[in-house]
Design brief:
This protein is mainly alpha-helical. Helix content is 84%, strand content 0%. It has 7 helices and no strands.
Length: 205
């Protein structure tokens, strides 16, 4: 009974921590509701584009599967793994492409639109800054204790790891929860202009 209670308590704490991570991610990486263009037609086009892209990527690889005589289950597992890797890579690719694409987009706009779009850069800047800060926190709290343990002794490294464990869990939760949010909202670039997420999708491809 005691073990069951402890298990339930641990599960509840994990769910609560995930809910907090999701709330923090949405607070900083999701645009305000009044900036999100909620158009049924555009939403339908996005769904069709997504599933059409998935279908084409599978169809293109089928001749290679036949030619190499790869078992279907192995090919499907590799295809899913490569897709997951591409999704996880999106935020890091956007770190390089968002500043360049936004600067180019604002640069070619007319003067009045340029000033208006430049005034809306706070949202994307906050989103980029929070993602980079949590990624650096993840690296520091994961690698730092091992580095200190190597140079200062295992006791120092162990104590540092225990002290930084809450920060490490927070960083892991934020970075993992931010991946779908970044893939959908492209670091809040729609606050600058509604067309920027589509432009960034083309740039990524």
């Amino acid at each position: 009974m005691r073990a069951r209670r402890l298990g339930k308590a641990g599960t509840g704490a994990g769910v609560a921590l995930m809910a907090q991570d999701r709330e923090i991610v949405e607070r900083f990486l999701k645009p305000p509701d009044d900036r999100i263009l909620d158009d049924p037609t555009i939403r339908g086009i996005q769904l069709v584009r997504f599933w059409f892209g998935v279908s084409i990527s599978m169809v293109v690889e089928i001749p290679q599967v036949w030619a190499r005589d790869i078992p279907l289950v192995d090919w499907l597992a590799n295809w899913l793994l490569s897709g997951a890797v591409r999704v996880l890579a999106v935020p890091f690719l956007l770190l390089a492409t968002v500043p360049l694409a936004v600067a180019a987009f604002i640069g070619v706009a007319r003067d009045g639109h340029r000033r208006r779009m430049a005034a809306r850069l706070r949202g994307p800047s906050v989103a980029l800054g929070m993602f980079v800060a949590h990624w650096l926190l993840l690296v520091a709290t994961a690698i730092g204790p091992f580095w200190l343990g190597h140079y200062k002794g295992e006791l120092v490294g162990g104590l540092t790891f225990l002290a930084g464990l809450p920060l490490l869990l927070r960083a892991i939760g934020f970075v993992s929860m931010s991946v779908p949010c970044v893939a959908r909202y492209m670091f809040r670039t729609m606050e600058v202009h509604q067309a920027l997420p589509a432009v960034l999708t083309v740039v990524l491809v």
